[in-house]
Amino acid sequence: MALLLTNQSAAKKATAEIDAVVGTSRLLQESDLAGLPYLRCIVSETLRLYPLAPNHVPHEASRDCVVAGGHAVARGTMVLVDVYSMQRDPAVWGQRPDEFVPERFMDDDGGVGGRRDGGSRWMMPFGMGRRKCPGESLALRMVGVALGVMLQCFEWEPEGGKEVDMSEGSGLTMPMATPLVAVCRPRAEMESLLKAL
Ligand code: HEM
């Protein structure tokens, strides 16, 4: 939501997609997500720029091994994966890796995926391998539906028209340094549905 408040054109594009696919006579639901590629791209791009666990959680090498770049890792070493840097590497993501560009996840045919999607080795906000997050599928659906319904039903703006501070706080997870405060107004075309809920 913070990224959409600072990138209103992406918010408008997602709302237009929702209006075209879901309409305004019912609420967006989980089964709609398959037909909302741009909304899913917004979620992917957000997890790329702001992975919940920027260094994942510590793991221990179970045997001696050599990882990318020829670095030897001895058995028993604590390993942290710098997902934050990987997901902003200009060699992978282009010259402006710090910019919010959901379109980078769109395939030519309007689908979501390609080698840079959440399952590729260039992006791993949910981890990878045996200890990968078991909640990935649930999380993507919940975030998609929650964000989608908020866009479908309301217009959003930062409180008092203030600029959103996107700087990051510290910790194992990555909170916003300044918590987001936003104001919402029901969209005119959704008012009758919202009143009936
Ligand atoms: C956007 C939301 C979420 C993100 C970004 C996320 C990310 C992660 C990450 C990075 C890990 C560590 C993977 C590793 O060890 O390398 C993890 C582990 C885990 N996550 Fe999530 N997660 C999310 C939501 C959820 C949800 C909704 C659930 C449960 C319903 C969940 C359950 C777990 C569990 C149980 C583990 C530990 C797995 C293990 O150590 O074997 N997560 N998650």
Automatic annotation (TrEMBL):
It holds the Pfam family p450. Keywords: Heme, Iron, Metal-binding, Monooxygenase, Oxidoreductase. Heme binds at residue 133. Its cofactor is heme. GO terms for molecular function: heme binding; iron ion binding; monooxygenase activity; oxidoreductase activity, acting on paired donors, with incorporation or reduction of molecular oxygen. Belongs to the cytochrome P450 family. PANTHER family: CYTOCHROME P450, CYTOCHROME P450 82C3-RELATED. This is Cytochrome P450. It comes from Miscanthus lutarioriparius. The lineage of its organism: Eukaryota, Viridiplantae, Streptophyta, Embryophyta, Tracheophyta.
